[in-house]
Each structure stands twice: as C-alpha cells, then as structure tokens.
Amino acid sequence: MVWTGLTALLSHWRRRPVQLAMLLLGLSLATALWSAVQAINGEARASYDRAAAILGQDRLAQLVREDGARMDQQEFVRLRRAGWLASPVIEGEMRFGDVRLRVLGIDPLTLPPQAQQVDVAVGDELLPFITAPGVLYAAPETATRLTEQATPPVRVAEGLPPGTVLTDIGQAQVLLGAKDKISRLLLWPDQPIGRAPLEVTAPGLTLREPSETGDLARLTDSFHLNLTAFGFLAFAVGLFIVHSAIGLAFEQRRPVFRTLRALGLPARVLVLLLIAELLTFALLAGLVGVALGYVVASALLPDVAATLRGLYGADVPGTLLIRPAVWAAGLAIAVIGTLVAAAQSLWRLWHLPLLAAAQPRAWARASERALRAQGVAAMVLLLTAAGIAHFGSGLEAGFALLAALLLGAALALPLVLTGILHLGGRLARGPLAEWFWADTRQQLPGLSLALMALLLALAVNVGVSTMVSSFRLTFTGWLDQRLASELYVTARTEAEATAIRDWLAQRSDAVLPIWSIEGRVAGQPAAIYGVADHATYRDNWPILSAVPEVWDRIATGDGALINEQLARRQELGLGDQITLPGGWRASIVGVYADYGNPIGQVIIGIDTLLQHYSDVSRLRYAIRIAPGKAEALAAGLRAEFGLPAQNVIDQAGIKVFSLKVFERTFRVTAALNVLTLGVAGLAMFASLMTLSGMRLPQLAPVCAMGLPRRHLAWLELWRGLLLAGLTMLAALPVGIGLAFVLLAVVNVEAFGWRLPMHLFPGDWARLAALALLAAGLAAAAPAWRLARLSPSDLLKVFAHER
Amino acid sequence: MLLRLHQIDKFYPTGEGPLHVLNGIDLSLEAGKSLALTGESGSGKSTLLHLVAGLDSPDAGEIHLGGTNIVGLNDTALAALRRGTVGLVFQQFNLIPSLDVAANLAFQARLAGRPDPAWLKVLAKRLGLAQVLTRYPEQLSAGQQQRVAIGRTLAARPRLVLADEPTGNLDEATGDAVLDLMLSLVAETGAALLMVTHSNRLANRLNARVHLHAGRLV
Ligand SMILES: Nc1ncnc2c1ncn2[C@@H]1O[C@H](COP(=O)(O)OP(=O)(O)OP(=O)(O)O)[C@@H](O)[C@H]1O
Ligand SMILES: [Mg+2]
Q1: A487 strand-pairing partners
Q2: For a FRET experiment, which of A44, A102, A244, B67 has its CA 20 to 30 Å from that of A77?
Q3: Sign of torsion over alpha carbons B134, B139, B144, B149
Q4: Per-residue pLDDT averaged across A687-702, rounded?
Q5: Does ligand 1 have an atom closer than 6 angstroms to the CB of B215?
Q6: How far apart are CA A755 and CA A760, in angstroms?
Q7: CA distance A634 to A626
Q8: Contact assignment for A263 to B88 by CB distance below 8 Å
C-alpha cells in the first residue's frame, strides 16, 4: 500500500520535470548560499581559534602589563629568581619587504610543554634556532609568501596560524627593534609553593587567565554576524521558491490526494508519504547545495580573507577545508527549510475535507481571508519594527529590526498590489483592459510568493547598494582629508631616520612624524600616535566632534583625540578621562572618523608622546611639499638613502591601496546580493511557468471569444512586467529603510562607525531595468508557449471543463 | 445481508440553519444484487452514497457493512474498508493524471494488496482498453476514461460497488455501452451494486430501485 501510494505521488514529478527542477534548484541554491557563508565563517573561526591557541594561550595563564605595553626583560629575571616558573614571549608586527607578519619570539629553554607549537629542540636544530641569524618557522602558506623576501632562513611548520612566524626571542627582539623587551610571560601550570607573591616581585604585572577566544574572535564577531545575516536572507528568499513550488505541487495534486483517500489510503499514511517525499528532496538538494556552497565559498573566501586582514588584521587562509559540521548543518538547514516551506501545505492537506469538490470560488474566498490575515501580520511586524527602531539598541536589535521590516514589507506587498490593481481596473476603459486588470488581480495569489521574494531581493539590493555607495562617498572624502600629506617615508633604522629628517629639512615644507606605540586603552587594543602642531592636521583632520581650540589643547599636552570606534565601543565622550599605557591620564578633547581601522586609536601631542614613551620608534614621517615636486623628491629620497620603493609612498599610492581594501570589503556583500537577486528571478520564473499551465482554462474562453493567441501572449508578458515594475516601486522605500538601519544601527555595532546616507537614483534605475529584464525573461517562456499553443490544446480545455 | 442502513439522519449546516438532508433512512442490499437510487437533484443521493463509502459520517443511525457497524470507525479503519470491501465509481472519473492507463487500472488492487495481473488483462480486454494501456488519462476520450475508472474499481474485486451517476458525463449511446459493461462485469464478480442515477430508463435495468424525496425513501 505504501509503495503503491508513493509511486502515484512521485509520478507527478516524472510528468513535470521542470517543476521538480525548480524545487530542487531553489532548495539547493538556498542551501548553497547559506552553507557558503557557514563555510567561510567556519574557516575564519578555526583560524581565530588557532591564533588564540598559539603558544598554549588558551590553556596557560600569563603575566602582562596592565596597559598592554612591553615590559623589561629584568622583570622576567626577577620573577625567575623569586621562584616563578615563567617563559618570556615577545610579539610584534613587522614587514619583510611587502609582507606584513606577526613575529613571535619564544625562549625554547623555558617554554612550558603546553606552549610547544613547534619542536625546535629536535636533533641539532636548537643551535641554529637560538644563534644569529636564527630561524623563522612559518605555516606552509606563509612560508610561500616569504620566498621572495630577504629574511632569516625559513622552515615550514604545520599548525602555526597564517601570517605568523615563530623564532627565538633574542632574534625577535632584534627584528622588532625591541632590545631587552618582553610582551608577556607564559606561566607553567604548576608553580612552586612558597614563591614570592606577585605584588612584591613584579607589582606592575597582572595575571591574565587562559582564554579560549582571542581578541580577534571578539573583534570580528559582528562582521561574521553580518555575513550570517546575509546568508540567512538569501536562504529565506530561496525558501520562497521552495514554498511556492511545494504549494503548487500540492495544489495540483489535490484531486489526486482526494482520489487516493477515496480509494482507501489513510490520511496519516498520505501525510507521512508526502513528508518522506519532501525529505528525500531536501536531502538530495541539500547535498547538491552544500557542494555548491563550497564552490561559492571558495570563490568568495579570498575576498573575505582580504577584508578580514585589511579591516581587522586577522589572517585567514585563502583555502577551504571540508568540514563535516558544515555538511551536517547544510543538510539540516535544507530539511528544516523544506519542512517550514511545506508546513502550510501539509497542514492544509491534513485538514483537506474528503468530499468538497474543487471549488475555485471557495479557494478564492479562503485566499481573501488569508490576504486579510497577512495584512494584519504585516501591520504588526511593521509596528514592531518601528518600536524596535525607537526603543531598541545593539546589534541584535538591529537585526530584529531588519527582519521585522523586511518580513512586514513582504507580507504587505500582495495587499498593496491588490489595491493598485483594483484602482487600475477602475480606471480601465474597454472590455479588454478591464479583463486585463481583473485577470491580473486573479493571478496575484499564485504569484504573490514569487513577488514577495522579488521584493525582498530588490529591497536588499537597494539597501545594500545605498549603504555601500554612501560608504564609498564618505570614505573617499575621508581619505582625502586623512591623507593630506604628499609623501610618506619609512626609515629602516633610527640613524637613517635622523639622516632623512636632516636631509628633508631644506627640501620640503614640513616633515611630520608618524610615531606610535601600541597598548591597551580602556581594556581594548589601541595605538597611540603623537602629532606635530601643524596646519596639516588643523585644516584636514576628519574631526566628528571636538571642544573649541582642540589642536591647541593637543599641542599643549592636556588632551587626547580618540577615534570613533573607540568612543562608541567604550561609550567615551568629550571631557571623559582615559588612562593611557604607563598609567597617566588624559582628557578627551575630540573624536575623529577613522574608517577601516579595527582597533582604537588615540592622538596626543608629539611632545607628550615622547615624554611618556621615550623609546618610541621614530621611523615614519609624512612629508609636505608642493604636489608638483613630490615625485622628484621621492626619487631623490630613494636615491640618496637607497630606500626600497615601498618605503617611500606617495599619497595616491596609499589611496589606491585603501580603496582596494574598501572595495574588497564589500565584494562579498555584492556577490551575495547578486545571487539573491538571481534566486528571486528564478522564483518568478518558476511561478509563472507553473501557473501558465493552470491558466489555460482561464485564457481559453478569451481566446475563443476572438482574441488572437499572439495578442494574449503579449498581454501575459506585459502582466509580468507590470507586476515586477510595481514590486520594484514598492521595494524602493523598503530598501531605503534598510539602508538606514544598516548605516545607523548595524554598521555602528559591527564596525564602530556611523555614516551619513546618500541616495543614488541612478543605481535604482539600473536595478529597475534589471528587475524588468528578469521579469520579462521569466514571463517570456510561458508567453511564448501560449503563443505557440495549438488550437486543439485549447479545445481540450473545453472538452475537460467540469 | 451485505449492507444495511438503519435510521440514518444527516444534517448539513448552512447559512439558514441546519439542512436535514437524510431523515430516518432504512435500506438494505444483499450480496450479488443491484439497487438503483433515484431522486431529483439535491435530494441527497450523493450524500447517502458517501455515507456508505465511509467518506462522511451520519448524525444518527447505523450502517452495517458485512456485519460491522462502520459508523464511528476512525480514519484508518474507514480507509481499510474503502481499500478492501467497497469500490467507488464517481461521476467525475478521478483518474490519477500522472499515471498511465495500465497503472491507473492496477492501482486500487495494488493499494488493497491483491494485484491480479490475469484478471487485469481480462478487464482491460473486456473494457476495450487493451490498445491504450500506455496512454495517459488526458489522452483518452471521456467514455474511455470512465471505463478505466470502472476497471480500476473492479480490479480490486470489491464486495460492494458504489457508483454515483457513472455515466452522467457521457452521451447517451456511450453511457449505455459503458453501463452495460459495468453491469455485466459486476454480475460476473458477484459484487453488489448501489448506483445513483437520474434516469428511470437506467434504473429499471437494475434488480431493484428506491426513490429519495424530501429526505425520505419512497
Ligand atoms: N457540504 C455541504 N454543505 C452544505 N450543504 C450541502 C453539502 N453538500 C451537499 N449539500 C446539500 O445537500 C443536499 C443534497 O446534496 P447531494 O449532493 O446529496 O444531492 P444529490 O441528490 O446527489 O444531487 P445531484 O443529483 O444534483 O447530484 C443539496 O441540497 C445540497 O445543496
Ligand atoms: Mg449527486
């Protein structure tokens, strides 16, 4: 019985391969986009975990200075003498040629076994490791990047995070120019009893407990949440296809269901069979979807990796691992999605009266009721969105707001369209026009899901492109301000720096130091810069808010400027006090825009910087000179000091680089955007294709009354365009609302900065053209089929009319 | 007695209050016999047939089929009844559009778990469907489709065939031919037949006839 029933149910698909393909395609695409995002996030998380686990930081406690600055090696010696079992580590960023890396220096002799990342003491490897020029251990990927650069010998070691090299602490101190300095001390798990207490031996140090997640994971959390939200959105749009394909298949098979029940198939068995059918599809499509997801993910990963590096300094490998968790999650989401999409149909089937004959009018009445319920739900959701916008805060509230706004708008769409079509019908003159409007209205229930998917995709497109374009406009303006100087030079040694300064004194208008130290401010990693008192800053610096005479106060040393992200994350404002590395305090006199920077930044006067951090490295300078002479000066600098090309960069060079980072940041978003739009187009095509078969009985009478089929086909095409056009119009305000939420809520939480919104009607026009094209293509196939329909097929409609 | 109805009442809720469609119906049918049910449109003929098939349940009364009262049985039991004991032929043919003629013919017998290829072959031949077995329902004429529906029901060898105006969708000549076939095949399988019809002419060709009027049998 079960088998017989199943063959009858499945035979439906054999005769409707296109519909089946649409169902599977929709489901696989939805799963693919979702899994792609999951795979990317998984890869990034794994690499953060690896970074967090390096040198056993996830298992070992450490001693650090509270302000995050480096300590003197002397501290280590003192602790050792007092009985502490500790091992020194130095850590810092440096450049080998044009490759920027994190250098980790360890002391192989005191390193706790838990921290042994690479076994440097094997055989006779220890000696070359601890004696000059030392050995750099790096992950294979990192080692490849270093092949072209002048470095100490490089050995490949698995298990190191990308972008990191491991070397002896003595060598690292030389490389990083931090003689006798230590970043932190790793503590052995078992410390001798009776050692002197920390407060006595090293009062400046604090104990940091082992932590599972590093700063990176926390910093990038919002970025990944952002991606996840987009993945979910794409998934939701895909589900619209699945829902409509399943709904139509159930609707078409309704007489068959009834016949099966009349022939003695129990309702329970029927529902179970249909669930089994759906699960089979879900698993099939899920497998294809996850595989497809990997393809999409590996295409997007390099951009994501570049974004993460550029934006957060996080190194993520550019290649994907196949993770069982992603497969399991992909299949699970496919199954859950299918069941969610089918829930309504299954519920209806369960309550399908055995007898009621096909009653189109009753169905229409039911859908009118559904329309009203939908309208109420839309109102509730939109009101909720307004409520969240008013009272909510935080990233979660931002996403809840987005969800409520999008879903509410989607649900409201059929209602709005019905209203417009009513109006159109009222204004129509002539029987054909009246029929056109009325008939279009009648199509709405069947098409509304596809149109809702289209609305979502278009609104997201408008929203995201508005956000990105607004961002680009602000960002380029900001770059012009921020990169006011004509040339930027980096010396290789302090001596060379002094020589360059002297050389430049006569040849340029000004030499502005770019000196900085790294440390922690308000519990966050931050960089502290000193600036000279110069018009370059007074005239150009992108200040968001400041006290009067802000630059005078910086120059006299009684104030600090902080960047927007630090201000937002720590809720700091003008007049607040911050404690800077070394324990001195400064009051905030201004906040400035600092797009694209993951960490906090503080600006103080150059004299103040030197006063508190006399050992700051003094290698980088900005040079002011008449723009026309910049190129010659750069050439002169390189020739005079034998500087490598990348040590003397002009303004344009940095701008190009910064813009490139920026563009890559949003390439992923743009790609997901386009894919979502494609999925929505497919939904439209699927719905129109399936509807066209069911529409024949409605079209046949019109045809019989003397309207040529070709004419009818054109009308079908116009109908598709009309509906898509109206949907696009409805998507505009939704998209602008979305952009506002993205710019004012989500980005502030995710990146720490807020941007003004700009509108780009040109983009909208392009998008509208694209939407119309997609709708036209989607409507063309059924219309063409109609135009070529043989008269006998139309006659059959009458023969079978019941 | 194969089928016995006792004091059946059936109401439909309507806008103007409950509609008393069947009012204390008593009726019985022996195995191997045929009974025609007539009455004007809207008199409740289909309703009565649906009650017997277990597609709907009465508001009062008992329906005994082969000795068991089917009133109050759950969906699974009623479904088993429809698979095994009763066969339905509708006015609309209710074929499964995605299955070909052969599969449609075999369908109910397979569903009931008693496929009988030899009997199917005989049926297909007798019903004149042997040439169209690989076609799909939409490629058949109305008369052919109804013959498939009849064959599908008889293939499962039900003890009771319920037919609701089986020829109502056919022209008179075709209808007569199809009905002749059905009557003789039902007789051959030894099944009982309860058939709803509008037509006195057709009703007279069965063993007995009852007339439904204002909710009562006359
Ligand atoms: N689901 C229902 N809800 C309300 N009233 C119904 C329902 N089904 C049938 N009726 C009413 O019950 C009465 C009997 O209907 P039934 O279909 O049994 O008549 P019938 O004798 O088969 O008519 P016909 O010869 O036209 O097929 C009719 O008045 C009909 O309007
Ligand atoms: Mg009837």
Answers
A1: A623, A650
A2: A102
A3: positive
A4: 69
A5: no
A6: 15
A7: 12
A8: yes
Interchain proximity A262–B53, CB inside 8 Å = yes
CA distance B179 to B166: 8
For A262, which of B88, B97, B112 is closest by C-beta distance?
Answer: B88
Worst-scoring range by mean pLDDT, A91-105, A401-415, A684-698?
A684-698
| Dist CA A530 CA A536 (whole Å) | 14
The model's pLDDT over A315-331, given as tens digits with 9 standing for 90+, comes to 777 677 777 888 888 89
Number of domain units in chain B: 1
Asked if residue B196 is part of any domain, the answer here is yes
Give which of A251, A254, A259, A694 to mutate to test B binding, by max B Cβ within 10 Å: A259
Main-chain dihedrals φ then ψ at residue A511, nearest 5 degrees: -120, 115
Chain A hits for B53, Cβ within 8 Å: 262
Whether B61 is covered by a domain: the verdict is no
Q: What is the CATH number of the domain that holds B182?
A: 3.40.50.300
User: What is residue B6's predicted lDDT score, i.e. its pLDDT?
Assistant: 94
- Phi and psi at B110, nearest 5°, equal -70, -40
Report yes or no: A252 and A9 within 8 Å, Cβ to Cβ.
no
Establish if B148 belongs to a structural domain. Answer: yes
Question: Among residues A731, A796, A740, which one has the least CA distance to residue A763?
Answer: A731
What is the percent of chain B where pLDDT is above 90? 38
Asked if residue B122 belongs to a domain, the reply is: yes
| CA-based nearest distance B85→chain A, Å | 10
Beta carbon of B21 within 6 Å of any ligand 1 atom: yes
Instruction: Judge whether A431 is closer than 8 Å to chain B, CB to CB.
Output: no
What is the rounded CA–CA span in Å between residue A548 and residue B23?
A: 96
How many angstroms from the chain centroid is the CA of residue A183? 32
Burial group, residue A170, by CB count within 10 angstroms (0-12, 13-18, 19+) = middle
Contact B98 CB / ligand 1 (< 6 Å):
no
Name the pTM for this structure: 0.68
Kindly state the tokens that stand for A284. Answer: 């099939």
Angle, helices A17-53 vs A651-704, to 10°: value is 160
What is the pLDDT averaged over residues B196-211?
89
Do residues A166 and A137 touch, judged by C-beta distance below 8 A?
A: yes
Task: Tell me the mean pLDDT in the region A615-638.
Answer: 87
Compute φ and ψ for A767, nearest 5 degrees.
-65, -40
Q: Which residue has the higher pLDDT, A415 or A482?
A: A415
Q: Would the CB of B44 count as within 6 Å of ligand 1? A: yes
Q: Any idea which of A42-51, A106-115, A177-186 has the lowest mean pLDDT?
A: A42-51
Owning domain of residue B135: 33-46+74-217
Mutate to test the interface with A, among B95, B98, B120, B138 (most CBs of A within 10 A): B98
Confidence tier at A587 by pLDDT (50, 70, 90) = very high
- Hey, what amino acid is at A648? V
Pocket flag, ligand 1, residue B10 (CB < 6 Å): no
